[in-house]
Specification:
Blueprint: H1 3-10, H2 22-33, E1 42-46, H3 54-65, E2 71-75, H4 85-88, H5 101-110, H6 115-124, H7 129-136, H8 139-145, H9 148-153, H10 165-183, H11 203-219, H12 226-241, H13 243-250
Helix pairs in contact: 2-3, 5-6, 6-7, 10-11, 10-12
Length: 251
């Protein structure tokens, strides 16, 4: 970014783009084409690579196929299937895995977390130690995590008080994910089974809720009224989480 653009973001006068823009990619390509003063190779990290729009990806294609000199591009992505096929075909793929839970828990404890807090934070972060450490830094959110499904099932809007609009939608998506996993006979990832309502929950209902949350995520950065948005999210969550009780009562 230019100094002015970065200063505007730092001063919160503008929000950073959710996409990797073509101007940024052209600057990276131009950087690779310049002669190195020290005669060394150059490396450009593109992350998250799936955030390149089609124009940006096409601007990279030729350089990616024939990097100038000793230049190398590293495209890091958590959703490589979203990359254009023409981009993927020009790359050497290397799959990286998350560390095992005991290893991640040990690392979190080395960062000053207790054993219990490390286990809870890892569960909430889906096994990602970096996300777990960031969540642990927000004491309110970490403490509220395990109780979140139960509180939402009671219609408690205050359950989302520790979350901003974006994080609230993400938390609900995690609940929805785990409920769909249970409905399909798999194990939950972000919550323990005891934290979630019992079966049965309709997979069709959960799929509808998942689509609604995806739609909500698109405008969560700039809701017209954050309070009303939170109320609507909590109300919808309650209707889904209590649908199993209604089904049992009907039978």
């Amino acid at each position: 970014l230019s100094e002015k653009a970065q200063a505007d973001i730092d001063d919160k006068k503008r929000k950073p783009s959710k996409e990797i823009r073509v101007d940024a990619m052209r600057d990276a390509v131009e950087f690779c084409q310049r002669t190195s003063a020290r005669g060394r190779g150059k490396a450009v990290l593109v992350y998250p690579a799936e955030q390149m729009n089609a124009i940006t990806a096409n601007a990279l294609l030729k350089t990616l196929e024939e990097p100038p000199g000793d230049a190398r591009f590293v495209l890091a992505s958590e959703a490589s299937h979203l990359l254009l096929p023409t981009i993927r075909s020009r790359c050497l793929a290397h799959t990286m895995t998350w560390p095992a839970v005991p290893e991640a828990a040990q690392w979190l404890q080395s960062q000053g977390m207790s054993e219990a807090d490390a286990a809870a934070a890892l569960q909430a972060a889906g096994g990602r130690p970096g996300d777990a450490l960031r969540m642990a830094g927000d004491a309110g959110r970490a403490a509220a995590w395990a109780q979140l499904p139960r509180q939402l099932a009671k219609g408690d809007v205050a359950a989302l008080a520790a979350f901003g609009p974006v994080d609230a939608v993400e938390a609900l998506q995690k609940i929805c994910h785990d409920l769909m996993a249970l409905a399909g006979g798999a194990s939950p990832r972000y919550f323990s089974p005891a934290d979630l309502p019992g079966k049965p929950l309709s997979m069709m209902l959960l799929a509808d809720w998942s689509r609604e949350l995806v739609q909500a995520a698109r405008t969560a950065d700039h809701p017209f009224n954050a309070g009303l948005m939170m109320e609507a999210l909590a109300s919808r969550a309650r209707s889904v989480l209590t649908s199993g009780k209604s089904a049992r009562a009907a039978r």
